[in-house]
Amino acid sequence: MPRGFAALKKTAPGLLAAAAAVALSYLLHLLVPAVPVLTAAVILGLVAANLPGAAAATTGPLKPGLALAARKFLRIGIVLLGLKVSLVDIAGLGFGALGLVVLLVLTAFAGTYAICRMFRLPGDEPLLIAAGFSICGVSAIGAVAAARRSRSGDTVVPIALVTLCGTLAIAALPVAGALLRLDPVVFGTWAGASVHDVGQVVATAQTAGTAALAAAVVVKLARVVLLAPMTAAVGLQARRADRASGSGAGPRPPLVPLFVLGFLALILVRTFGLLPAPALEVASVLQELLFAAALFGLGAGVRVRALFASGIRAVAAALASWALVAGLGLGVAVAMTG
Fold this sequence. Notes:
By secondary structure, the chain is an all-alpha fold. It has helices spanning about 5-30, 35-50, 50-60, 65-80, 85-90, 95-120, 125-135, 140-150, 150-180, 185-195, 200-205, 210-225, 225-245, 260-270, 275-300, 305-335.
């Protein structure tokens, strides 16, 4: 049997299960629009991992395909994220606003990391949660985990938490914006500065109209661009740690993972207008499909019993971090639009 056919046969059951979960996630979103597709995918993965009959399948015949989806599909989705970013649009913010965005990301990263360490979260969870909350959610967690060479198990809780808090923001920020009587542009800037994933930003900001949505998307994409330098910084720190411990004598991965370079390349493609609008729309849909499949695969690797030890601490740390990022984002929004 050819090697490629054997690999396909091995991964096909898990990939088909992921495809079915993606379809079901879209159905759930249609029935309950308040539940984003990616959130539904994570929940379905968690359910599959912890129901007695389904759990046996996720650790047996479905495991190779789900592992492939969780790793490869997430990285391809990050590459396609680059097609959402135009450097021309970001430059339109001006140097002062861009400086505030950079300061926001650095402060949010440091503050969230400190909170997670204070709650004694294990392994690389503090670093990954800090990346996800400060930059761009699931995409940042995947990129930083690759640069750090984190264990796959360390990514599961951060991804679940960043998805949870991003979903809460969709409901909470419009209510807060109304109570604070924020101008639509201020509200949109706040959403772009504080909500995690691009899709969650759109869902939050559109409640205040087109002006809010336009402001939110540009500010959010300015944060997304910082994914590459942040990943490079994490990769450099990982190399230094390897040298200090004497474990860096063997082959080392690139300072910036190849899929992050792909992300940068597609930013240039979008900036120079090398693809027509229909192609960009197809790429956007494909990105969401890949992310949904990846999140189902990651969720299917979570065993609730294994999370009991740090689960409560992790949720508390995430909520505290969410409040910090929201507060910082509101301050930046007021400063940028004042």
